[in-house]
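Problem 3 from the worked examples.
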Amino acid sequence: MNDNKTFGGVRVDPTRAHWEMWGEVDAAVQSEVAHVLTDHLLETADEPLTVDLSGVTFIDSGGLRLLYTAAEHKPTPPVLVGAPARVVDLLRLSGVDTLFILND
């Protein structure tokens, strides 16, 4: 990590197309992990992506951009698991909810 104080992040499963987002997923987190996530998307290109959002306490446009990038790179819609209501609301307000499969 750099000198920016971040209170959230994304854990990447190196064995499959799976991310776990946690805490405050904001622009600081985006700038810190975007290259890692893009590499992971390329490495798992043909695999469906699952993103566990159950640990997210806050998300802004930076976090939304990470999710949107995932949808752009995958042949099938990413599956979002455990998305809190505030994340679902942001996806709907942004008009990108149809790019994902929402799974409780």
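Problem 4, a separate protein:
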Amino acid sequence: MASAKEGSAAAQDVVWRLIGPVSELSNRQCRLIYSSFGYDSDVCLFRVKGDFFAMDARCSHSGGPLCDGDIEEADDVLQVFCPWHDYDFNLRTGKSNTGLQQQVHEVKLEDGSVFVKHASFLSLKPFPLGSKD
């Protein structure tokens, strides 16, 4: 049986979503990007050493806020650590040393703007309640 999230994603194509100008998004290491699909589909946009990465904002273990996690680099692997239980996730692949997998999203920079490939509309501000498109 498909979850509501899967059903919503299937109803709309995964496309490049404009997040905003690189100049405005470069001043924070992590920024929460809101999804029109709701809380469970929000995205963390990470900026580390000038590179951008995106993954689902809620930890696949128990829903912890990954945007509040510490980012560390070891052996050329950038990882975010969930603040709730310290689970690690590779920013590039979403893989964890615990065996868990976090959904990652492609990011591109074009004409001075950041885009994230995602099925829902994305915004730097929360969507009004009941908004699904």
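Solution to problem 4. The two ends are 23 Å apart (CA to CA). The first strand starts at residue 15 and ends at 21.
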